Amino acid sequence: MKKLIIDANVILRFLRADHPEHFAAASKLFEQAESGKVRLVLLAPVLAEVVFVLTSVYECGRKEIAEALQPFLFHGGIDCPESAVLADALKRFASTKIDLMDCYVAAAAVASDYAVCSFDRDFRKFSDIDWQQPGS
Question: What is the 3-state secondary structure (H, E, C) of the chain?
């Protein structure tokens, strides 16, 4: 079975349905993945790009974005190597004003039982992580 790494534009055209030809092709691809004809791979940077475009270009809300992307993380035809961490990051993103990358770092820290070392004080807002500034 062929494995395909999907790019952000495939997910965006599927979610936005703003280009009929691309929407149809993306829908067909996800149907093929569902039926086992192909295996799709979703990487964390691709998900981050989707979030960036949805927030900056389409001005979608954080909760709306998280709800739209969660199914891709646990879709039967999609391999997402960091699905649990990304799901946690999206949950944090939806419920705060903290950017996705910091939410991802926090989620990865919790999943790995690591502390976070950063100058960014936003990490204090996550009660479930151990945060420290460099040099402290």
Answer: CEEEECCHHHHHHHHHCCCHHHHHHHHHHHHHHHHCCEEEECCHHHHHHHHHHHHHCCCCCHHHHHHHHHHHHCCCCEECCCHHHHHHHHHHHHHCCCCHHHHHHHHHHHHHCCCEECCCHHHHHCCCCCEECCCC
Q: Using the predicted structure, report yes or no on whether residue 1 has a pLDDT greater than 90.
A: no
Asked if residue 136 has pLDDT above 90, the reply is no
69's tokens: 């992307």
For the chain, which domains are there? 2-132 (3.40.50)
The token duo for 10 is 């495939």
Phi, psi of 41 (to 5 degrees): -125, 130
pLDDT tens for residues 99-116?
999 999 999 999 999 999
pTM of the complete model:
0.94
In sequence order, the β-bridge partners of residue 4 are 40
Residue 7 in marked binding region: yes
Give me the percent of the chain exceeding a pLDDT of 70. 100
